[in-house]
Amino acid sequence: MKKSVIGFTAIIFLLESVVCIASSDITYRVNVEKENPTIAKVSADVLTLGNFVIEPPQASNLSTSHTKLNVICQAGKGKNISIQFGVPIQCKSIHWNIKFKKLSHTNFEASSLQNIYSPIGWWVLHEQDSLPRISGNHSIYVCVTKNNCNKLPENISGNSGPPVFMVWGKKTGVIKIHNFKINIFSDKELLYSKIPSIKEELEKQYSYLSAVFLSDKQQITWSLVWIAIDQKYNHLSGAAGANAYITNYLVDNGRLTDRTLPWLLRVSAHETVHVLSKYTLPTWINESLAEYYAFKTLTLSNIETRDPIQEWLKRKSAISHASSGLYHANRMVSEQHDMSFYPLFYLKGAALWQELDIALNEEGKNLDQYIRLLNKDDSHDPTINQSFIQSMVRELGSGLWESISSKYL
Ligand SMILES: [Zn+2]
Fold first, then answer.
1. Residues 73-90, buried b or exposed e (16+ Cβ, 10 A)?
2. Residue 376 reports pLDDT greater than 60
3. Domain locations in the chain as residue ranges
4. Residue 202 C-alpha to ligand 1 middle, in angstroms?
């Protein structure tokens, strides 16, 4: 099989907080009827808004004219009008339908951001293509049940945080570890027998990573969605959103393979770093540390996984911008929105941290002790803090630091 592709569609998690909906807030109520589980009806009372303007939802990669929403305004006296995005209107309520893809074959790509319905009895709703915004500073909550509501991020420029991503229905299981509660939704029974060993590994991941990333989170609840993909499709991916992430696990003709669990645990560890870390970091550091610590966590459990330095050396001739430094790559992503530089964060970035960690090990130290020095006041500045650099120079000598940093930064 060719290289697997891991494409995370969102960078940082928003943590679940206690949702208090004020009477002036708008609530999108999502309703699915049992007889028709692939269609959800969404409605909201908007009378208090007076004149308002509806903006289209964020677009997914799969957006087409067919995915365009038809939002209906109920203007009173049974009068229904199709709303035009961007044009002011007054309504009593608005409503529209959302489609869900029914999971059937093992070919679903987790990063595709499609809304899905599993015949087991659960649903995943992505904000993209499904949830329009209302112009102005309105707080909008999306509720799939009375106790499962999420606030839409207020900034619609696309950089306001991870998209809303809701999961509800019949859980496959619940894992409770310290202050974590993880609701698991799985597409098949395949992984059921593995849950005890997955739980044991997740427990190790959390204890280790919360110490390194100094988590002070009181209580974290998140949903984890596992969907099988056959390895013949060469595409293993994941997507993270607010309070949830969805990931593929590999199967071969309907069976688990030797690589199923290592990959699942690696993706979990990567996301866990995002959830736990309380540091402010530029995107390249955020992603590369998550990737490096996903690797490191697995090696601590003696699980075989690919080595970031080897992976970088193997793949650098085939990927774009391999000779770009990570600071430049970060600027290209954050300022020019050129996502073709993004894979460097995972590959080149993770290799940098591994190289530093190995060099520190030679001195009887390790990278974990210095992570806090990477914390920044401003995440837009891609450079590594002087305090971290000074520590590396002190431990490794300026010659070695220079040689490593010039190779990667
Ligand atoms: Zn990530």
1. bbeeeeeeeebeeeeebe
2. yes
3. 26-152, 280-409
4. 17
